[in-house]
Amino acid sequence: MQNTIAVALITSISTLTGGALTGLVAVWVNRMQLNSARFSADLDRVEQRMSRHRELRRDSYIEFLGHWGKVEDLLVTLWRQPSPPAEMVASLRDYRDYSEAENAIYEWRDAMNLVVLEGPEEVGILALEIYVQEAGYLAKVAETLRANHGSEQSIGQIDRNARNGQNSARYLGRGKFINAATKAVGGDLPSEVTRTQV
Predict the structure, then answer these.
(1) Structural domain of 61
(2) What secondary structure letter does DSSP report for 193?
(3) Rounded-to-integer distance, Cα 185 and Cα 119, Å
(4) Residues 6 or more apart in contact with residue 60 via CB below 8 angstroms
(5) Could you tell me if 101 and 54 are in contact, meaning their C-beta atoms sit under 8 angstroms apart?
(6) What is the pLDDT of residue 88?
């Protein structure tokens, strides 16, 4: 009988120990699964936030480039036209082509500020430099208009150096801006980054 009690006691202790170990392993596995799910959810939220930020950056860059194109077209129009008579140059804001270019510069400022806010710093600085440069060329056009009113030559013919400088600076600036913007939105990365790479 004592053997039977000993066997029963050993069996019950083994059963209880096995149950306890199984329970501990189940709790540990469950905790690992919960931690993994939490980590995965956190990673998804981070990826969504990063994706949304890239979209906002991309949209601000596209808006900036669109305004720049408009300003560029208006400045090219001004460079190609002969200087108007003195009465039109007295108040350049009354000169339609000039006032359109000036208004486009002011509208473009909001797009430039958005790029500066969205960043990164390199792209924001480039946007600011480009904006100031183009505004400077508009001021150069105004100076040339005032100094040469009534001329039959186009403003670009009168001040070829300024016009050519603007064209070169614009070409170089556009390339730098597009390269920096592409890098900032992840355009130089593979189209899909796996979780193991993050």
Answers:
(1) 52-184
(2) -
(3) 10
(4) 111, 114, 115, 117, 118
(5) no
(6) 67
Q: Report the number of distinct structural domains present in the chain.
A: 1
Tokens, residue 68: 């720049």
Tens-digit pLDDT profile for residues 114-123: 999 988 999 9
Q: Is residue 89 part of a domain?
A: yes
Which pLDDT score, from 0 to 100, does residue 178 have? 92
CA-to-CA dists, residue 18 to 5, 29, 80, angstroms: 19, 16, 91
Check the CA dihedral 72-145-168-136 and report its sign: negative
- How far apart are the C-alpha atoms of 88 and 127, rounded to whole Å? 32
Beta bridge partners of 82: 154
Cβ-contact 142, 79 below 8 angstroms: no
Residue corresponding to tokens 């597009």: 178
Q: Is residue 69 part of a domain?
A: yes
Q: How far apart are CA 70 and CA 121, in angstroms?
A: 24
Which residues have a Cβ under 8 Å from the Cβ of 52 and sit 6 or more positions away?
Answer: none
CA 73 to chain centre: 23
Q: Quick count: other Cβ atoms within 10 Å of Cβ 34?
A: 10
Q: Is residue 166 part of a domain?
A: yes
pTM: 0.72
CB 115 within 8 A of CB 124: yes
Asked if residue 131 lies in contact with residue 108, where contact means CB atoms within 8 angstroms, the answer is: yes
In a domain, 149, yes or no: yes
